[in-house]
Amino acid sequence: MSDYFQRSRAKLLAIPVVLLVVLACAGPVSAATIDISVSGDIPYMVMTPGITSQNTSVHLTVTSDTATWTVVVKDASDDAKPPSYAGRMVEWDGTSAYVASPKVLGANMTVEGATVSGTTGSSATLSSVDQKIESGTAKVTSLDIPLTFAQEVAYTDPHLTASNHVYRIVVTFTGAPS
Amino acid sequence: MRAIFQRSFTMTIVIPVLLIIMLVGSAPVSAISVSGAKYMNSIPPGGTDIQKMTVGIGGGEDPTDVMVEVLGFGQTSDLVYTTLSPVNDISPYSARKFISLDINTLHLEPGAKKEVTATITLPKNVGAGGRYAIIYIHAIPGKGKSFTTAVNVPVLVTVSGSSPTEAGSITRMGVGNVTIGQPISIITSFKNTGNYHYYHTANVVTLKSANGNIIARNSTPPSVYAIIPGNTVEFTVKPEVKDLPTGTYTVSSKIILESGRVLDEKTTTFDLKESYIPPPTESSVTLSPGSPGTLTSPDGRYSVVFPQGAVLGDVVVALKPYSWDNLHPAPEGARLGATCFEITGLSGLLSKNATVRVTYSANDLAVAGGDASQLKLSYWDTVQGMWVILPTQLTTQDMKLTATTNHLSIWAILISSPKTTAPPTGTPLPAMVDVAALIVTVIISGCITRQWK
User: Fold this and answer.
1) SS3 helix, strand, coil % of chain A, rounded to 5?
2) The domain containing residue B315 runs over which residues?
3) N or C: which terminal CB in chain B sees fewer CB atoms within 10 Å?
4) Does ipTM come in above 0.90?
């Protein structure tokens, strides 16, 4: 696919996604321990107009010694991303910054946490506001939770033309306590 | 079928685009652990307390820089705690300014742990009730890393010796859109108007007919989150009702504490201009290769007829209600109708086409502007991530839509004008063929143009 794009001069839109995961413990206690990890890779997400591409290679792992905990997700507009584009992938210069007057994908990215024993998952359309994707219902140890990232691409989405520019988003996962 | 149209349209008119989005992620694992990740205790006015937090990362990770900040204590409408930046932390019950940290940044080597100490000092004139903040501990994303992790530490301080006030007010209450086949939602917005948080709050909703008979009484489970003073949260109750005739109904909603004390109660009415039918209850059928089978919802609105040989082994297939709110957006040029449901139990495709038959509702017809010919049965292709609009037979006499398919998943009625639907014969191309066709088109176009915007 890369070779094809080099030949056709179509722009490969490399989109480094930094997932900022925030977690906190739950329960009316004065001390608690929480451990969260994210594993897996998203090497490529092939996207075609009119289709919602999905990736399920990333997993969230949670250890919590309190019985109720929640993971929420948002786009915190890190790295000086224009807040008005929260939830959407924005043109990045490939090295250090979002570009001025950037091109932006039209649809917001969605993140879905799976339902597994000990937690109930749900889907969230990324925005600047925290939205729940996991509701923990039990104390858990190394609970593995598959995540699904989805991005809809439309025919009207802009094609990047500058060399090395990519679409990028920083996703923040927040574990909400109770 | 819309997909087929789009494919054809793309080949001839539109400059197609294939976006490859590469999520750069060289580091496969990122983790953080925090002990002492919650503070909830009492401090007298003028008093001080300490919260020690131990922060670590996994042994297999890259060295990580971690930032620690004290932020305001916010709350989303679904009660989840969230941080507030200092500029947005205007609550009189904020503890943010009362908390100092011994360190704001720390560097962690793989497998290492370090301690962060928060000192909480209440002024002598702090007032009564509770004070709240969140200590935000987050790893700074490393260059080229895909993931980073962090921890929120909620801080809930009770001003000891003061009299906490547990109070609240229902600020808004309403009935969501009443749609045939979807649950009725009673939404209650509630604000903590006291000076102290409370856990295990529940919303009890009672639905009555015009003559005062109780039709349903349901409640949310007690919340596992505290409601923080100054925050407004939202409760949603879906009363368990059967068919409702047209008429006026009364809804009362009250917020109660674990003790049973009612914090507030409000009542409203709504009119049903069309008879209401609740979502179907789940039904199932066991299919065998040697026999045909029929899956029918208890209310008869939905049915799937499987011919003999549709499955290769015994399988239980179920028909379930599906929340309209969870549907994927309609494709360009189409709109979601009101009816949706889910068929589960098959991990792959049917060997022979099944016949899906659905009764459309007045709500579907309303979305279509009264033109039933625009109503199309559609399923969500989870592999392709797209709606597939099927050739649909319409019989207006009994308000039925019929289509054949070998693909069972999430189904909905979509409103699609005739010009964007596929020819009336045949079934959609297999998914892989769809993709291949589109990619080939892109390759050609990519070679001949670079002007696409």
Assistant:
1) 5, 50, 45
2) 283-436
3) C
4) no
